[in-house]
Specification:
Elements: H1 18-29, H2 31-46, H3 50-74, H4 81-88, H5 91-126, E1 131-132, E2 135-136, H6 142-161, H7 164-192, H8 210-224, H9 229-232, H10 240-268, H11 271-276, H12 281-289, H13 297-326, H14 345-361, H15 368-397, H16 401-404, H17 406-436, H18 448-471, H19 477-480
Antiparallel strand pairs: 1-2
Helix pairs in contact: 1-7, 1-10, 1-13, 2-8, 2-10, 2-13, 3-8, 3-10, 3-15, 3-17, 4-5, 4-15, 5-6, 5-13, 5-14, 5-15, 5-18, 6-13, 6-14, 7-10, 7-13, 8-15, 8-17, 12-13, 13-14, 15-17, 15-18, 17-18
């Protein structure tokens, strides 16, 4: 059936092509940062089985990507999951998807702010700068890395204000450098690494425990998180299908890079070295393969990746809040479009300010490694929830295809449903393991209640904000889950 077009809202400037979308999604996924830091964190849980968990995590994420792509074809909207889930399931869950994506990204920006600062302090150490104004520089200090990273966050936020096209050009240049360095060092590490290659690296059954497997998979989901950034700019691409292509291209590219990186790291570093260096893992990897100044190149690539992911995090969050503001589920300030840049400039600045505030709050965790672990676990759980709900929305929306064309029905309904159930099961199991792992609350990355409290607050705050939007703002979104669309096209819906 053909639905009545949704109401029209303020329009964003259509200026992006396929490569721009790929640059934004790839920068948001931040392969170099995920490899340089995420692999070490994950190895601390699953040991020398990184390729196994990366491959396993890719399977449900591929199903999620298919759901995003199919939904984007029939309803391109900057709010993506927020609109799709609200319409197909319930506005309450749709709002929750939009909300947790916002708070998860702000938490990610705070984490990446510290990572950026750590990379810059490490790089300063490589050139001989170990003290500044009498202060010994420590790349493992949350306070120092956050202070340096906030300066960078302010700079990239100002750049993002000028529009997504300018940001995409900057990110393209950074990505080219990152990938050349990453491919060169990882390829060299695979060939020359002292540790023998083993097929057991690909055996998920050799992982120590079920809880370790679940946590490793969610950490891997966190590494893949960001491919959907291409769908947040689907109102700014000249052809909405380019957003779908960009997301899928990015996801497959990330799989290749993560497998390459995990094999290279395990060829070069022992399990203890891999798990023990945290935010300094990529720098240590480079030092093992080359002497200075070449050994500093992976560290420069990490810094570029962190800078690009900061900017890429600001952009989709501002677009998601823009879409929610059009529906009056958030305040009107988020939907103001700059007449000069054709972008939500004020909302972008506010996102940067919120991320700065959260980065400052992270100072309660003094060690950077602990802060990274706490953030990654929390974001992994809420991202799994968001992905699962979006996949279920696709299954509900296209369920009639099971009767019309069973092949299409399997791709559109069965695979997204299986992917959603896998992610919900992983998240639920990990939450239960956190809950039962201790009997007290402590602000520590190894305290299960603390690791569970953070995502629980993210989710609970979403329902509070939804109640405010429904009964105080009286948003029309809660009547039908329909989102305002800037172009108001006629949209094809295959569900009743």
């Amino acid at each position: 059936m053909i639905d009545t077009p949704p109401p029209s809202g303020p329009a964003l400037r259509k200026s992006l092509g396929l490569l721009d979308g790929v640059a934004i999604a790839a920068s948001s996924t931040a392969a170099t940062t995920s490899i340089g830091i995420g692999l070490g964190v994950t190895a601390g849980v699953v040991g020398l089985h990184l390729p196994a968990v990366m491959l396993l995590a890719f399977l449900p994420i591929l199903g999620i990507a298919g759901a995003y792509s199919r939904l984007n074809k029939v309803e391109p909207n900057a709010g993506n999951g927020y609109v799709w889930v609200g319409r197909s399931l319930t506005p309450w869950l749709g709002f929750l998807v939009g909300w947790v994506n916002i708070v998860a990204t702000i938490a990610f920006l705070a984490y990446t702010t510290a990572v950026t600062g750590s990379a810059m302090i490490q790089l300063a150490g490589e050139v001989g700068l170990h003290r500044l104004a009498g202060l010994a520089l420590d790349p493992g200090s949350t306070a120092q890395t956050t202070a340096v990273g906030i300066v960078v966050l302010v700079a990239v936020t100002l750049t993002a204000v000028t529009g997504v096209r300018t940001a995409a050009r900057l990110q393209t240049g950074l990505l080219i450098f990152e990938y050349v360095v990453l491919l060169g060092f990882c390829g060299y590490g695979i060939v020359t690494g002292p540790h023998a290659f083993s097929l057991s690296w690909f055996d998920p059954f050799a992982i120590p425990s079920a809880s370790a497997l679940a946590q490793g998979l969610l950490l891997s989901v966190f590494c893949y998180w960001g491919f959907e950034a291409a769908f947040t700019v689907n109102e700014e691409v000249r052809d909405p299908r380019d957003a779908s292509r960009a997301g899928l291209i990015t996801l497959v590219t990330m799989l290749g890079l993560f497998l390459l990186g995990s094999i290279a790291f395990q060829r070069v570093l022992s399990e203890g070295e891999l798990a023990g260096h945290g935010a300094q893992g990529l720098a240590y990897f480079g030092d093992r393969l080359a002497s200075q100044p070449l050994a500093a190149l992976p560290l420069v690539a990490l810094m570029f990746s962190a800078v690009a992911s900061l900017q890429a995090g600001v952009i989709p969050t501002a677009r998601g809040m823009f879409a929610m503001s059009r529906d009056r589920t958030l305040g009107p300030v988020w939907s103001k479009v700059s007449s000069r840049y054709g972008a939500p400039a004020l909302g972008t600045l506010l996102i940067g300010a919120l991320a700065t505030a959260v980065a400052a709050l992270a100072l309660v965790i003094p060690r950077l490694a602990d802060m990274i672990m706490a953030t990654v676990n929390a974001v992994g759980i809420v991202v799994a929830l968001s992905y699962a709900l979006t996949a279920l929305a696709a299954a509900v929306r296209f369920r009639s295809l099971l009767q019309e064309d069973w092949r299409q029905g399997i791709r559109a309904v069965v695979l997204p449903t299986l992917s959603a159930l896998a992610l919900l099961g992983l998240g639920g199991y990990l939450a239960w393991s956190f809950y039962t792992s201790t009997d007290h609350l402590e602000v520590s990355a190894d305290n299960g209640w603390f690791l569970l409290l953070t995502p629980a607050v993210m989710i609970a705050s979403g329902f509070v904000a939804a109640a405010w939007a429904k009964w105080i703002r009286r948003s029309p979104y809660f009547q039908s889950g329909r989102g305002t669309d800037a172009d108001a096209p006629q949209l094809l819906a295959t569900s009743s």
